[in-house]
Amino acid sequence: MDIDEKKMVDIEEEIRSLQLDSADTTEMIAEDNNGVVNAEDESAQHEELEKVDKMEEDSKEEVHNQAVEVEKKVKEKENSALDDEATFEKELPKKRHLNVVFIGHVDAGKSTTGGQILFLSGQVDDRTIQKYEKEAKDKSRESWYMAYIMDTNEEERVKGKTVEVGRAHFETEMTRFTILDAPGHKSYVPNMISGASQADVGVLVISARKGEFETGYERGGQTREHVQLAKTLGVSKLLVVVNKMDDPTVNWSKERYDEIESKMTPFLKASGYNVRKDVQFLPISGLIGTNMKTRVDKSVCSWWGGPCLFEALDATEIPQRDPKGPFRMPIIDKFKDMGTVVMGKVESGSVREGDSMVVMPNKAHVKVLAVFCDEDKVKRAGPGENVRVRLSGVEEEDILSGFVLSSISRPIPSVSEFEAQLQILELLDNAIFTAGYKAVLHIHAVVEECEIVELLQQIDPKTKKPMKRKVLFVKNGAIVVCRVQVNNLICIEKFSDFPQLGRFTLRTEGKTVAVGKVTGLNLSSA
Ligand code: GTP
Ligand code: MG
């Protein structure tokens, strides 16, 4: 989602509406402010008319001011594009950049919390909120208005469920954040995977409302699946936000909060998170905005002495990747725009305007015409940045998502066979896992049919050591080393070299059956 673009469209619409004749305008404004005008109070009618007139004037003035503001922004952007080398060099050390994915069970409050963050960071004005409140009410989804900031398409708003990963930006004192709002519904897990594979930090949203924590946490609930996927996909830190603390069934109860924390902790450990170092719990109300930008007031919650969400996000440390490493950017999307534009997150190295690069695995040699970070054109972008890169030398049709923009001197390997260590989670109908097993492989932006061609070794889950006897099949919960084949060449790395490009999941019929890491590449399979 692009808030700036949306604002522009809204403003354009408003400017257009001002050109209508005044009767229409008055009607529009009166309707827009339905909730504000008290229609029952007859004696106040005259006053109301005055109010409407004033609102009209205010509104005109506001639109004018907004238009001036937009013009100013466009000018600023143009200027910054002119001397962006200097700007980039100046801006680079000032703020770090973090990608944060919001994950968790359906209806936990991910979009509401994401929307509230944008509201609290001053990116959504009261007027827009009022508009969303009205729209949500019309759709009989009163409490969903905050989620509408992130859920921008009609299907999402009507159903109250995120489908596409929403994207937005906000800043705190120390950090520029990109928020990725993943869908919680089990039908959209592949979209969640693509969101999580772009992020370093996860905000796991859990509903504390009676019954909701339980449904999300039970087998088949997405709280579990999302945590396991996030870990595998390289989300190294988790903030577990216990949401809906304002709900009447919770009412900021310490007992409920402690119950959720104590049930989640062993599960997070079992999923591979170091709970002391990499996980932090905190209570919030995404809908009301409590304990988000400022700490919760003692009169609301006497027992919480920890940080609020903004503080916790700002304090999250992630391992810095090497800006001088070989360039790797998995392509998640592409389109035509004065050349071929590819989108993705830089996993290693830096990209500069004018660089020569190669798109793998099809070995297309390309030239970098321009680099965009968020909405801004920049001269260079480093690891962790979500970027759009305009290329010459390759047609848009010749690129697929999962291809990797890569350095020429050290291109990413491409293979059709690799060795991996797999953890079997849950096979369909408790099937057995053996040579010949087929599934869909998800690794960074790659989605490919794959087949297990040989089981090599089973690993003892307790000692983590290989077991002696030969392995022909394994069941749920097993850890096994095996050879995996795909039909098309894919670009991957060994987990030990580039964790982000060497972790994967196997899915069948819409369920995650295993997570794994690449332990060896069969380079002769290229
Ligand atoms: P999906 O995108 O479908 O996975 O859901 P989601 O996690 O994005 O949830 P969403 O933000 O759409 O919110 C679902 C419902 O929970 C809405 O009715 C929200 O108003 C409600 N909700 C979210 N946060 C809170 C909260 O802090 N307190 C209360 N009381 N309700 C909340
Ligand atoms: Mg949502």
TrEMBL record:
Q: Where is this region: Disordered?
A: 33-64
Could you name the domain of life of the organism this protein comes from? Answer: Eukaryota
- Basic and acidic residues bias located where? 43-54
Q: Which SUPFAM superfamilies match?
A: EF-Tu/eEF-1alpha/eIF2-gamma C-terminal domain (SSF50465), P-loop containing nucleoside triphosphate hydrolases (SSF52540), Translation proteins (SSF50447)
- One protein family per Pfam: GTP_EFTU_D2
User: Which terms are listed as keywords in the entry?
Assistant: GTP-binding, Methylation, Nucleotide-binding
GO MF annotations for this entry? GTP binding; GTPase activity
Q: Where is the Tr-type G domain?
A: 95-324
What biological function has been recorded for the protein in this entry? This protein promotes the GTP-dependent binding of aminoacyl-tRNA to the A-site of ribosomes during protein biosynthesis.
Q: What family is this protein classified in? A: Belongs to the TRAFAC class translation factor GTPase superfamily. Classic translation factor GTPase family. EF-Tu/EF-1A subfamily.
Q: What is this protein called?
A: Tr-type G domain-containing protein
Q: Which organism is it from?
A: Lithocarpus litseifolius
